[in-house]
Design goal:
- 44% of the residues lie in helices and 19% in strands.
- With 390 residues, it is α+β, with helices and mostly antiparallel strands.
- It is globular and about 80 Å long.
- The termini are far apart.
């Protein structure tokens, strides 16, 4: 068997198959299992763990293909040679970037005669650095091709209402007016996953009708419109465009105009930038998607814990609990260990996160921020509010 392999960036459609799938999708796509690995703290180690999905498909031919692929990628300057070569390799293929997670990851595909290997790579110190999902190539490609037709949503009379792309979302409005978004995956022409549940398309329509609920596709994201000028900006413009007769001396007039700009424009710009910085820091905390909210809340609370003295180290996140206990006490450390699996599930799996999990993360965030705030001096509080904009 030749060791010459070809590595190419994943298409946007293929990127969805570098995460854990439901049992239905695992069967449809011929998922054999996946390999998880990291390069240790030095960036030069190589530690892997194999996870079975369908062990009955783990034939000798598959094992030989997997060894061939991994050994080829482990060569000098290869994708899996070390963490630094992985980063350099990914930079040569900017189209491989997988965006939308807590950090940018990179996706690549290697094909053998009967098997396909889809890799999701993260050249970040302290995280798992790659996942290699292994498929029966024919089954995977056939499923991807069928999924291109989109997911049908019909009414109970089988009339098609709309279609969404595989991985798109629907908005369900309950009989009492509550709206919820659900990600959807294509199973086949007549079945789809809505959230974590599998439905026949007619069963979903009948259940929505029975419950008095309506459903529609999530609209495309709209580009935010620019805000109208504020009263302060309008007044500043009026001042600058007004009568200049009192300023008979050019230098004096220029000085007065400069002082007006300084008094009116600079504070406005600073406060505007402070507001935007605070919005960036808090992005995702109120997101309708519980997964996005949980990931954003975890990152946000870590920034507050660093203010209290938690120094980032190249250790598993669970190891931070001892330091948190020393700084803030055993109760908040115990809560940290409880919410850590929530963040890991939200960041690394495709499971639907519940409102209860979102609430649990939010309670921890509020408790941790309150404790840290009490420990800060007045000077530190001013720095946190008006410079860090947390």
């Amino acid at each position: 068997m030749s060791n010459e392999i070809k590595t190419r960036p994943l298409t946007p459609t293929e990127q969805k198959y570098t995460y854990a799938q439901s049992m239905q999708l695992e069967g449809q796509t011929g998922t054999i299992g996946h390999l998880r690995g990291d390069f240790a703290t030095t960036g030069y180690g190589f530690y892997t763990t194999w996870f079975d999905t369908r062990p009955q498909w783990k034939s000798d031919e598959f094992k030989a293909d997997l060894d061939t692929v991994i050994n080829a990628l482990r060569k000098d300057k290869g994708l899996l040679h070390n963490r630094y070569d992985m980063s350099a390799f990914a930079r040569h293929f900017p189209e491989s970037a997988i965006k939308g997670n807590y950090c940018t990851e990179y996706g690549f595909r290697v094909d053998m005669e009967k098997h396909a290997f889809l890799l999701r790579c993260n050249p970040t110190k302290g995280d798992y650095n790659f996942y290699c999902y292994c498929y029966v190539k024919e089954w995977l490609d056939k499923h991807i091709q069928k999924a291109e037709q989109g997911i049908r949503f019909i009414d109970p009379q089988y009339k098609e209402l709309f279609r969404i792309p595989d991985g798109g979302k629907v908005i369900v409005k309950t009989s009492w007016g509550e709206k919820r978004e659900y990600p959807c995956r294509f199973i086949d022409e007549y079945h789809t996953e809505v959230g974590s549940n599998l439905y026949h398309i007619c069963e979903f329509a009948e259940r929505m009708q029975k419950n008095g609920a309506t459903y529609e596709p999530k609209p495309a994201e709209q580009t935010p419109q620019s805000e109208p000028p504020t009263f302060r900006q309008e007044r500043m413009q009026s001042t600058l465009d007004g009568d200049r007769e009192p300023f008979s001396h050019p230098i004096r007039a220029a000085l007065v105009i400069f002082l007006l700009l300084l008094l009116l424009f600079v504070p406005s710009v600073y406060l505007d930038r402070l507001k935007k910085k605070r919005e960036r820091n808090r992005a995702g905390l109120s997101d309708a998607d519980a997964r996005v909210c949980i990931c954003a809340s975890f990152r946000y609370v870590l920034r507050w814990l660093r203010l209290a003295g938690l120094e980032p180290e190249n250790v598993p996140f669970a190891s931070y609990s001892e330091k948190i206990e020393t700084i803030l006490g055993p109760e908040i450390a115990a809560q940290y260990l409880q919410i850590l699996p929530l963040w890991q599930e939200a960041a690394y799996s495709t499971h639907e996160m519940t409102e209860q999990q979102r609430t649990q993360m939010r309670v921890f965030l509020q408790t941790a921020v309150s404790l840290v705030w009490k420990k800060l001096s007045k000077k530190q509080r001013l720095w946190t509010t008006y410079w860090l904009a947390l």
